[in-house]
Amino acid sequence: MSVFITIGRILFALFFIVSGAFTLADIPAAGKELSTRVTIPAPAAPYMTQIENAVGISTPQLLAIVAGTVAVVCGLMIAFNLGVRFFSLLLIIGIIVATFYMDDIISTQGTEWRDNMAHTLKNLSMIGALLVLFGHGSGKRLEQEPYHER
């Protein structure tokens, strides 16, 4: 595998590692942000109440812990080139969910709209890069001759 691909994969994964670590470093603030944006569906509310009572943490804080942990673990696994397809797929799903709940480009205007649009476009480009990683996998296949030489 090319050294450039390895360095690029590690630098790309660094985004998820650092952002997940920042989320885990300040769980109350991340939970507060999530509580203003995410609503728990009514059918899931009783189960979330049981989980809150069992662990002693509010649902938004629990979601922040899960999101931060998933980001760090997926980033590390991609950086170490282990299970790249699986962890890329997890991050794609996570980014889609985060974009849906966090970046409101429908009802905002002005500078807030531009900020949300920039985040949405960044997320779309991250999904694109993750799709490349998903398609490439860990790169441990036998080399095939290039398509143009067949």
Structural domains: how many: 1
DSSP strand count: 0
The largest β sheet comes out as: none
The low-pLDDT segments are: none
Notes on the structure:
This protein is mainly α and 150 residues long. It has one domain. It is built from six helices and no strands. Helix 2 crosses helix 4 (59-79) and helix 5 (84-102) runs antiparallel to helix 6 (110-136). The two termini are 22 Å apart.
Task: Please name the defining characteristics of this protein.
150 residues; 6 helices; single chain; 75% helix
Can you give me a brief rundown of this structure?
The protein is mostly helical. The chain contains six helices and no strands.
What's the helix and strand layout?
Elements: H1 3-25, H2 27-37, H3 45-55, H4 59-79, H5 84-102, H6 110-136
Helix pairs in contact: 1-4, 2-4, 4-5, 5-6
